Amino acid sequence: MCEISENSEQEVSQVASGQHQAQAPGERPSPAGSREVLMEKQKEAQKLMVFLQRPGGWGVVEGPQKPRSSAGDPASTAAVALPRWRDLGSCLDVLAFAQQHGAPGLAQETYALMSDNLLHVLGDPSLYRQLSGADRERILSLRTGRGQAVLGALVLPSLYQVSRSGLTRHPCAAEAPAVGPVPPPLHTYLHVFHPRENTWRPLTQVPPEVPLRGCGLCTLHNYLFLAGGIRGSGAKAVCSNEVFCYNPLTNIWSQVRPMQQARAQLKLVALDGLLYAIGGECLYSMERYDPRTDAWTSRAPLPAGTFPVVHEAVACRGDIYVTGGHLFYRLLRYSPAKDVWDECPYSASHRRSSDMVALGGFLYRFDLLRGVGAAVMRYNTVTGSWSRAASLPLPDPAPLRCAVLGNTIYCLNHQVTATFTVFEGTAQFQAKELQPFPLRTKGVLCPFILTLPPADPLQTEL
């Protein structure tokens, strides 16, 4: 902006000099013309400098700058001269400025900035409450509207290890004495699937501070949240109440408010812009997280006798459904509006569920059958009735973990990556085989859906 101001002064001086040389002897100088136009440009540039240099205004960060435009209007000049990264505290002023000067590009960049950092916007009452309903919807839609939704997966370490004497629980197992130097822990990465190349690729490294073993995982507003889990091993193992989140639009990991209660083997569900942490080992309690207040609040506990360990939970039509694990074939429904739990009809299959997802008002529960593989049961949430949908032969009846993308349910374990398509009332597995998850490490394979930006994110901090 200083350069713009200096250039304007030079142009004014040049015009004044040229007018003086071109004047005929005795001719009066004209007060109108290009001199007044250039003076107006200079005034606008000075106004912009004052606006940008206010305390709490735009942050100056080194980075690639857009090429200068030859246009002389203040809106174009502002859009060109502004730094690439801006302060969220100035967004409201920038939107007002863009509207006043007719700069849609500047407004779009500001909306994109707020969308990229949605959790900060939601948690700032002075900013979020002053946004209109249309502004809020636009910011939310930009979270998933500027990239491509992809299938991702994360391997969570298993809670149990197989020995000759059977299953041994990690937290309660005695620690073996260390022999020689202890090798450093292996890095854990989020992986994403590229359907065109039929390949899996690492996306980002999970911070070593995240207790992955026994944590809950889900996505909300295109953030990946990891909550709870077990930190340490053996006699030193403790449950965690910490909550981490990954933002794919900025490639930044951060933490939000910890849960009220430490949990392991919990289920994390997103519904209507809120997170629900359900149960856990020997826990019936449930709590809810609101990003707008950055606070967890207690909700109605699970019914007595359910003992929800290794259960499955999913949101559908405004309610939360829980099944599987030690619940076996039982199906529970939670109503957030009433804050109550009730029992749904039992399924016809009394097999243990490996996962459950929601699609089109139906619940699809994937059960394991010996000698068959996976059997899919479908529950109609309107009529409350169960029906058999399809089956998938598996060489090894390992549990399937599922995620929904469009009208396709991706079903994963360490041996296969299958697709279950729902279209016009029909539901069936596709014959095309996809590349299985590349890592053969033991653990729980947890799929999820994220929308990645079209290019590599440039933002590294806020």
UniProtKB/TrEMBL annotation:
Keyword Repeat attached: yes
Region annotation Disordered: where it falls in the sequence: 1-38
Superkingdom per UniProt: Eukaryota
InterPro entries xref list: Kelch-typ_b-propeller, Kelch/BTB_domain_protein, Kelch_1
Biased composition regions of type Polar residues, renumbered to the chain: 1-22
Keywords: Kelch repeat, Repeat
Tagged with keyword GTP-binding: no
Pfam families in alphabetical order: Kelch_1
Record's protein name: Kelch domain-containing protein 7B
Phylogenetic lineage: Eukaryota, Metazoa, Chordata, Craniata, Vertebrata
